[in-house]
């Protein structure tokens, strides 16, 4: 009987010793993983000064134009299904809201059908003024406002919940475009928002934005234009801590992963 009890105590001690060794081993492995992740994070995540030398909301070396200049030069192009508000100063009979047809045509009193597809609002104002000046008005002052942008798209990719291509409807800002993609995800770099904007001649302007600064009202929420591409970068620090959290949960209870 005494021999049996000794064997039981020995078995119990062996199991406890094995558990301690396993626990120590797991802690050692976890420490090595943390050190490895820290090293990888430091090696693979260069400083923002090295990768983003440009201040927020400024252009890269691909373009010397300011964001405002690019917006004026590359204004929104009217397309099918867009809703236009056309006003002729002091001639209310000619002022109205019209929707562009599938063929890119609108119809107005006196002028009749006119092709407006791929015109900017300024180009359409000039065209309508010219047509009215030819036969009807001495010095017409025409203004065109795009009430609904339906034909154009913006691309949102990177660290967002639902990357994709989304329609621009009405005046759309950067935060609204990100909201269309259901917002940024948990590893997004809120200071690392890139906006690629076509400038013509197969070139793009790169603009940099800080979401936190926009949310706090420090900088204005920029307007989004057709064919803009928004890229939300990942934060190396957030990625590291997210992976670390997964490792800690695994070693705390490895069976939940199986």
Automatic annotation (TrEMBL):
Domain of life: Bacteria
InterPro entries, per database record: Poly_export, Poly_export_N, Soluble_ligand-bd
Domain Soluble ligand binding: 153-200
Keyword Transcription assigned: no
Gene Ontology molecular-function annotations: polysaccharide transmembrane transporter activity
Pfam families: Poly_export, SLBB
Annotated Polysaccharide export protein N-terminal domain residues: 72-146
Bias kind Polar residues: ranges: 47-67
Chain residue ranges for the region called Disordered: 47-71
Keywords for this protein: Signal
Protein name: Sugar ABC transporter substrate-binding protein
Species of provenance: Nitrosococcus oceani C-27
Phylogenetic placement of the source organism: Bacteria, Pseudomonadati, Pseudomonadota, Gammaproteobacteria, Chromatiales
